[in-house]
Amino acid sequence: MLDIILGAISLGLLWAVMTIGVYITYRILDIADLTVEGSIAMGAAIAAKAISAGINPFAATALALVGGLAAGLITGLLHTKLKIPALLSGILTMIALYSVNLHIMGKANIALLRMDTVYTPFIRLGMDNTAAVISLGLVCVSVVVGLLYWFFGTELGSAIRATGDNPNMVRAQGINTNVMKIVGLIISNGLVAVSGALISQSQSFADVQMGTGSIVIGLASVIIGEVLFGKRNFFNRLIALVLGAITYRIIIALVLKLGMPANDLKLFTAITVAIALALPELKKYFRPAKISIKEGE
Amino acid sequence: MLKVNGIYKVFYPGTVNEKIALKNLSLELEEGDFVTLIGGNGAGKSTLLNSVAGVYPVDKGSIFIDNTEVTKYSEHRRAALLGRVFQDPMMGTAANMGIEENLALAYRRGQSRGLSWGIKNKERALYRELLSHLDLGLENRLDAKVGLLSGGQRQALTLLMATLRKPRILLLDEHTAALDPKTADKVLKLSDKFIEDDKLTALMVTHNMRDAIKHGNRLIMMHEGKVILDIKGEEKKKLTVEDLLKRFGKASGEEFANDRALLS
Q1: Where does the protein end up (chain B) (predicted)?
Q2: Which of A130, A192, B95, B168 is 20 to 30 A from A63 via CA?
Q3: What is the ipTM of this complex?
């Protein structure tokens, strides 16, 4: 049982990086960006291909980051320059990336057995696999949370946050909202690709299909994080996202343990997200807002 | 200052809904002019303001600010020269951000934005000081989300944001129309004060004839996309609502039709 929980935590930490990426587009920019389904697989593909070609795993992960940044740039340009709706721009890049990822890998999947990965240094210290993933995951998540907390507090970061909040106001303050959206999409997809690279190295293979449904997993983690762990301030939100991603993995591990067939996993996730997204409406239905009308008004 | 040369703006061209909103409109504002802009429904007042602000491109003609042609400038590029307050109190501020964050965004209008901290500590003192002049108690709520403020408070804050970096022209687009009369009056008084204190050049759209007469040094009336009356100086000071309605009838050959103007 403890093994299952620790495994879920390790996987959750890696997915937390992706969850933060999804949060940037979905919550901060108010764009549902489906590019992530392609960029997570792209991160995995680039890292796996580079590692099997003998490149240092940390350099391979950095290459994955660059790939993700580029994917975000494409979606951003499609959306802001060619005025294609954000949802469709993401879908177009996602579909295109499927072919691109196949080209990168040269086949549908790559196994990384007995290769050095980013986890190897930790394993050499005497850790077992799960402990190594948790250690590196914690380092990565801390760096990402720290960097983003700093970035979204800067002038540029504030402008990006405001763009998702009220683009009219932002333009009136002399900010190019198109550039802000592109920067947001780039950062988001870069993080997602890094997450993909870390996941593929922890499971020792990369598969061109691994992105399917990842946006829903990301959204589920975002929503679980916000509902269970609060959103008082930005730092608190980032931590909540990490905890949300871990909680999602623990929930999944537990329902699988309780005997749910693995094939039903995506159905289960989709239903969970649908219910979570519908919560505000459901609340209204079951508990209508109380209004008080004072005498004489 | 501001020079608008024969601009045209057509919405939905080539369709049954085609609407010529601005017809060969020309207008010149002198430094320090405070112009009130009034007109009937669909006269093109807001279209004129939005054309100056660059919300959409004009179809013909040119716009100059300080002898620089800005006709082709994008909205965000022109923003360096303009302060704007909108009719909808929701439009001028970011609801999910704090009061100080909104002010900090406005404080950097026309400046380049980089990776230094979004709000410097010394700015906070300035914001507190300026907010206290609004007399709304906002100076003690720098952290509060703007979404929690009332419409009047949001408009007052937007006004402060629009003038935080002195704009070459202040554009007020019926900025009190969505407020109750008492709050509207307060925001108008604030606008007067800002314009006077900073010696701003301003263009204020209003649907209220009394306000249009009471405020500013110059009154412009629009009808069907054109300027039909331009009253300034002593003449403007002596103007009454009855005069204005009469002169409108003479200039346009029609009765003044603005449901809100007639009701207020």
Answers
A1: Cell membrane
A2: A130
A3: 0.90
